[in-house]
Write the structure tokens for this entry.
Amino acid sequence: MGNVFTDIGEGGRVFRNEDVLSPEFLPGRLPGREKQEEEIASCLKPATLGNAPINLFVHGNSGTGKTSTCKLVLKQLSEYSSRPLPIYINCWQNSTRQAILSILSQKVGDVLPRRGLAGDEVFTRIIQQLKREKCVPVIVLDEADKLFFGGEEQVLYDLTRAHETYGVPIGVLLITNSSDLMAKADNRIRGSLSAQEVFFKPYSPQELKTILAERAKLALVTNAWNDEVIALCAAHGAKNGGDARSSLKALWNGAKNAERRGSESISLDDVRRALEVTTTSAEEKEQRDEKLLGENEQHLLEIVREKKSVSVGELYLEYLGKWGGSERSARNYLRELELRGFVSSEESRGARGERVKTILIK
């Protein structure tokens, strides 16, 4: 019986360092994001003097450089001054108030007992430790919409009120794809955050070409790629909302296809085959995401999908007529659909000047 690794052979050598094309790779510079870097740095600089930074609401489409830009600025912040304590938390992996406070406690050097503590007690210990250490936590909460999914946004109030209540400055950066996330927060949380908005517009085709060319020089061997390959990958990202991540994925998959056929250079056909698989995968992901919805959310989504556009009042009326329940429950189901990106909402004025909220399928 043969060995599968022997059977597939060596293939061609295309990669110099394929990690450079991964979403986790952090380059030394981010073309097209210089303005956002400066905005974020300006808001965080007070932390270098021991003062409260300006909280930030960072939003834009997937793959527009939000996470990478924030991570790069945090890296440079820690190189510039030892006073700030940069902390990155992905809220899909840590989606509760307790989880976030536990990470913060660990980062500030407070070892929690194994028996576990209530969230309020953990937060009290964090405050005490910060008063001793005199550092300024700068906390990035990536994919912050997950906190709202589970009703865990209370932690934002805890963190942003620390300066006023305890004299302990803490900075918060919320990263999300949802531009209207703050509109879904209650007034108390919105007021305590007082966040400055930083918008990441979609990358232009030329910006995507620049990003891909810079990464290709680091990731691929000499002569493994050409301008036509870069242009095709960039066009794919531009078509998907200016998404650099999908462009980089297309280049990586194209390089893998070249290696499999024993070539040392990527052809346009290598990329085209990669894009066929990517398109199918995206459709399958959307179908999987919908299957993860609860039965009630799926019923509500069916109504919106059928009508394309429907007022909230009409939507609730039809849903409750078909499936029963309370308007409050229907409102919660709709909130879940909005946060997960299945539907969007817009407000307008009715014939009598009243505000009318319309739900649209995405």
